[in-house]
Design brief:
- The complex is a heterodimer of chains A (about 260) and B (about 500).
- With about 260 residues, chain A is α/β, with parallel strands linked by helices.
- Helix content of chain A is about 40%, strand content about 25%.
- Chain A is built from 10 helices and 15 strands.
- In chain A, the strands form 4 sheets. Chain A has a 7-stranded parallel beta sheet, sandwiched between helices. Chain A has a 3-stranded antiparallel beta sheet with strand order 1-3-2. In chain A, strands 10-11-13 form a 3-stranded antiparallel beta sheet.
- About 5% of the residues of chain A have low confidence.
- Chain B folds into 2 domains: about 240 residues, Rossmann fold, CATH 3.40.50; about 240 residues, P-loop containing nucleotide triphosphate hydrolases (Rossmann fold, 3-Layer(aba) Sandwich).
- Helices cover about 30% and strands about 25% of the residues of chain B.
- In chain B, the strands form 6 sheets. A 6-stranded mixed beta sheet of chain B has the order 6-9-10-3-11-12, with helices on both faces. In chain B, strands 18-21-22-15-23-24 form a 6-stranded mixed beta sheet, sandwiched between helices. In chain B, strands 2-1-4-5 form a 4-stranded antiparallel beta sheet, covered by helices on one side.
- In chain B, a hairpin with a 3-residue loop joins strand 13 and strand 14.
- In chain B, helix 8 packs across helix 16.
- The model of chain B has no long low-confidence stretch (mean pLDDT about 90).
- The chains are: A alpha/beta (about 260), B alpha/beta (about 500).
Chain lengths: ~260, ~500
């Protein structure tokens, strides 16, 4: 089992049981207790849990409204790693666009100490950045898609007129050789078409589970963006395709 | 046409890879035809086909107007074709004359017995040495000769076998200035004897001096054949470099920290001279050059394999005048070798052992190896680096990409801070390539620094913060990021200078 899968499992157990035990986990995953303690350290740093003697408990204080709203909390570790790489690309003074979704939310979490302008059509991303002194946050407004934090429609589109973006990070729901990049709704796709027009640099962010999948509405060909941030588990044929088509593909390899 | 030797429409595949495509090449008696191109352009493969080492998939070879079949080195030799390789192929413990006449010594009859005519062996050898004005003793053991002198012994051996076509692959790579002059004299003499010479070299100045014609190969195809008298250096370099490859390397911008390595006036046995540079945390320093430029020697001196050296290596805040491999590893320097080299992997051992070998202390207690711990640590790295193998797989069964990752894993296990990476992506599949570039990013993010030795110029341009170009054992140019192009690198790597 991969370290990330293990961490995701530990999170699941924590959600369900509210507590975990080092010895039990070490048996469950057949890894050393040292390895488990390292995983727990990592999760504690993220504010996910509080360590106790021989184990840890869920940090319930830190669970924001997100858990209620968001349905897509798969591959959260991979998204965190994508967020880390993305933040390396952002320079002070730039105007950044973050599209809706948990992947871009992770980017927001990783860039709080920068001095930039962030435009987004995701309520949660705007909220996440509420305390970042150096970041000017612009939330587009617009129609809220039910049970999500995504804003779309003509009000949202209007907010984009007359502004220019240095780097637009666009999260997608499907990456596929045939269907290209796809998202959940037609309205979202319309928003992204507009973003493409006003942005200097389009960067696609998608964790590995999005590959070989197709969602409802098409954004464009796989060659529409010159940079992609994803995970090492992506199928090799995609890595090859990107390299041979002059697209930079970034993935994270976590070392201690 | 009607040249003495003609190769027509030669095509060669290695697996699915086309390494030569419809190549035409010819040379006449008493002429030198130079063959140039970047590393991997197909020069050596083309010549190995002529020498019978490889057999072409299609194409024809004509000598003196007659179609010939060359299926093995012996047939090539019988046709009068002789190849002198980059690495010397002599018997080091035999003397000069014995090497020249080995397995075909002249015989004499003595009382019905056929004996080797040693007098003749030595007199013939001396005759050749005299003819070329070489001050070499026919009875000297080969291992007492310089690399240059050994090359001359090989040339004489070829001539004594009645070679009519001689192929020289980078003959001057290990030569001193005087030896180069001597070789050019020998080549002039061979021209007079009517020998057809094919000269592979990266040193374009040499090509201009001795060749009549030069053919540029790129990606397995002939780009152009020029008369040397009416072409200049820049034109040849332009043909070699081709179009710039678009930027596809995942280079992350990472802030540089403190200096981790500094090298002052490093020299080693004349193979590298007066090398100075420094390397910072978070930085990738590219070291490039054509083969024989001294890149790998530099790496081996830094890692304590080639010693003793002159100059200083500053690592981990200490000055080393006598680096050895143990000190290098203890102070956080490692050498991620190319795949297929002796130092890289223990090919018949499992992945686990290959990973933990460089730091057994980490998995030992009171001098005993903790096997369970070893496997767990190795599995962890296999997973982190996305190595497509199991802990117990034998290294030699892995793909090139996975072998390279195992070499990386080995050094990650020692927590190295300065990584010398030799040809990071040569001979591996594209998808592993992308992984390796991203692994390099991650190493830099964790506070390491990288010295990347590569002959792939686009990779050097795409990934490095600074580029050192080497030529003939010296740094011939330093480029900051953004200054270099393939053409500029080739210029300095082929012996071009700033003043020109």
């Amino acid at each position: 089992m991969f370290a990330i899968e293990r961490i995701n499992k530990i999170k699941e157990i924590l959600y369900k049981d509210k507590r975990v035990d080092v010895v039990e986990l070490s048996k469950l995953f057949s890894v050393t207790e040292v390895t488990i303690r390292r995983d727990l350290d990592k999760l504690e740093k993220e504010g996910f849990l509080i360590k106790t003697y021989g184990g840890a408990v869920l940090n319930e204080e830190n669970l924001s409204g997100r858990a209620v709203l968001e349905t897509d909390d798969s591959a959260i570790e991979e998204k965190r790693m994508i967020g880390k790489i993305a933040s390396q690309m952002i320079e002070n003074g730039e105007a950044i666009f973050l599209s809706p979704g948990t992947t871009c939310l992770e980017i927001a979490k990783n860039m709080k100490n920068k001095r930039i302008t962030v435009v987004t059509n995701d309520l949660l991303i705007g909220y996440e950045l509420r305390d970042s002194a150096g970041i000017k946050v612009i939330v587009t407004g617009g129609d809220l898609i039910k049970s999500t934090s995504t804003l779309v429609g003509s009000f949202a589109l209007q907010a984009l007129s007359g502004i220019y973006i240095n780097k637009a990070f666009i999260g997608v729901k499907g990456v596929n050789f045939d269907s290209g990049y796809t998202v959940d709704s037609y309205e979202e796709a319309l928003m992204m078409q507009e973003i493409k027009k006003i942005s200097n640099d389009i960067i696609i962010v998608a964790d590995y589970t999005k590959f070989n999948r197709t969602a409802f509405a098409r954004l464009g060909e796989l060659t529409m963006a010159k940079k992609v941030i994803t995970n090492k588990q992506v199928p090799p044929e995609y890595k090859k395709f990107y390299f041979e088509n002059g697209i930079k593909m970034f993935t994270a390899f976590e070392f201690e | 046409m009607g040249d003495f030797l003609e190769m027509r429409k030669i095509t060669k595949l290695f697996g699915d890879n086309i390494v030569l495509k419809d190549v035409d090449f010819s040379v006449n008696k008493g002429q030198v035809h130079a063959l140039v191109g970047e590393n991997g352009a197909g020069k050596s493969t083309l010549m190995k086909i002529l020498a019978g080492v490889h057999v072409a998939n299609s194409g024809e070879i004509y000598i003196d107007g007659n179609r010939v079949e060359i299926n093995n080195p012996k047939e090539a030799q019988e046709l009068g074709i002789s190849m002198i390789y980059q690495e010397t192929r002599l018997f080091p413990d035999l003397n000069v004359a014995e090497n020249i006449f080995i397995r075909r010594e002249p015989l004499k009859n003595k009382g019905g017995l056929r004996l080797i005519d040693w007098d003749k062996v030595y007199s013939e050898t001396a005759k050749y040495l005299d003819y070329f004005g070489l001050k070499i003793n026919a009875k000297a053991s080969v291992n007492t000769l310089s690399l240059g002198q050994q090359k001359f012994v090989e040339i004489i051996r070829a001539l004594s076998r009645n070679a009519r076509i001689i192929i020289m692959d980078e003959p001057t790579a290990a030569f001193t200035e005087q030896e180069i002059e001597l070789l050019f004299n020998v080549i002039q003499d061979m021209k007079k004897l009517g020998i057809a010479i094919i000269y592979i070299s990266h040193r374009l100045n040499e090509v201009k001096r001795i060749a009549e014609k030069v053919t540029v190969l790129r990606d397995g195809e002939v780009i152009e054949t020029y008369e040397v008298s009416d072409v200049d250096l820049h034109k040849i370099i332009k043909a070699m470099a081709g179009k710039e490859i678009c930027d596809r390397y995942p280079k992350l911008k990472i802030r540089h920290g403190k200096e981790l390595l500094r090298v002052n006036n490093l020299s080693y046995e004349g193979r590298i001279r007066n090398i100075s540079f420094s390397l910072k945390e978070g930085e990738i320093l590219g070291i490039t050059g054509l083969s024989g430029s001294g890149r790998r020697t530099l790496a081996k001196v830094l890692f304590g394999i080639n010693r003793p050296y002159e100059g200083e290596i500053m690592l981990n805040g200490r000055i080393f005048k006598d680096m050895d491999t143990n000190k290098a590893i203890e102070n956080g320097l490692c050498y991620v070798t190319g795949i297929g080299t002796d130092e890289g992997l223990i090919l018949n051992a499992p992945v686990t052992e290959n990973i933990t070998i460089a730091n057994l202390k980490r998995i030992s207690k009171f001098g005993f190896l903790n096997k369970e711990e070893e496997v767990l640590k190795a599995k962890d790295l296999i997973e982190r680096l996305e190595i497509g193998a199991n802990a117990y797989d034998i290294a030699s069964n892995l793909s090139g990409g996975n072998q390279k990752k195992v070499i990386f894993a080995k050094w990650l296990f020692t927590n190295a801070k300065v990584l010398i990476i030799d040809e990071p992506t040569a001979g591996i599949d594209v998808s592993s390539k992308v992984d390796i570039y991203n692994i390099m990013n991650e190493l830099l993010l964790s506070g390491a620094s990288i010295m990347m030795i590569s002959s792939d110029f686009s990779e050097i341009l795409g990934m490095c913060d600074r580029i050192l170009v080497m030529y003939n054992g010296e740094i011939s140019k330093v480029f900051e990021k953004g200054e270099a192009t393939q053409e500029k690198i080739l210029y300095y790597a082929s012996g071009g200078r700033d003043s020109v």
